[in-house]
């Protein structure tokens, strides 16, 4: 089939998110200017540069008590910082619980039964049990086409790595099995690896 998004796809569910998959999950923690903590997963997320290390995520909807955006993006615009927590398979249910649409006053850490830890370089909580966490300073907010679509770009100012995820000096994803977002209600978990040398690269 072929369709133009402006004309609709005619299917029971939108295939776009299933086509662009798997996508890493940015489990974004923030602290509002009012001191309230927030945690929510975003699948429009990725690393975008090495030096300095930078990441992005996009918020694509709104909620009644946040005006033109959601709690994560609103907090980041107010404070200029956020933390990206990496989602392991063991944390899948907690991640899912934190995706609930709840009032601004609700702390998703409590809702998901998660222990907090404080970041080192920014005033923000992080998920203590996450295999890794990236402390970030906001560098840009880019409005995207459409209503309530905002891309947040951040420079990584601090990196936490769980000691148990290091093996022979490498961050070993098979030690924690990262989760990825597919389409619809589907997710994937990384359990197998393959390695490929680039053309001309020594083994």
Automatic annotation (TrEMBL):
Can you name one GO molecular function term for this protein?
oxidoreductase activity, acting on the CH-NH group of donors, NAD or NADP as acceptor
Cited Pfam families: Flavin_Reduct (PF01613)
Flavin reductase like domain segment(s): 20-173
Q: Which residues cross the membrane?
A: none
- Top-level lineage group: Bacteria
Coiled-coil annotated residue ranges, if any: none
- Record-linked PANTHER family: BLR2425 PROTEIN, FLAVIN REDUCTASE LIKE DOMAIN-CONTAINING PROTEIN
Q: What is this protein called?
A: Flavin reductase like domain-containing protein
The record lists the organism as: Actibacterium atlanticum
């Amino acid at each position: 089939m072929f369709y133009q998004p402006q004309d609709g796809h005619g299917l029971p569910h939108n295939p776009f998110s299933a086509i662009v998959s798997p996508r890493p999950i940015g489990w974004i923690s923030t602290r509002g200017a009012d001191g309230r903590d927030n945690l929510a997963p975003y699948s429009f997320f990725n690393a975008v540069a090495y030096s300095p290390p930078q990441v992005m995520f996009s918020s694509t909807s709104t909620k009644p008590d946040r005006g033109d955006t959601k709690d994560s993006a609103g907090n980041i615009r107010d404070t200029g910082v956020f933390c990206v927590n990496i989602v392991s398979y063991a944390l899948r249910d907690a991640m899912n619980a934190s995706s609930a649409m709840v009032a601004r006053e609700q702390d998703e850490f409590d809702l998901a039964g998660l222990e907090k830890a404080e970041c080192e370089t920014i005033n923000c909580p992080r998920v203590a049990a996450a295999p890794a966490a990236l402390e970030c300073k906001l560098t840009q907010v880019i409005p995207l086409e459409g209503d309530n679509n905002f891309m947040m770009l951040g420079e990584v100012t601090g990196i936490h790595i769980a000691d148990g995820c290091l093996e022979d000096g490498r961050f070993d994803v098979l030690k924690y099995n990262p989760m990825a977002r597919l389409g619809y209600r589907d997710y994937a978990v990384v359990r197998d690896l393959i390695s490929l040398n680039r053309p001309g690269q020594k083994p």
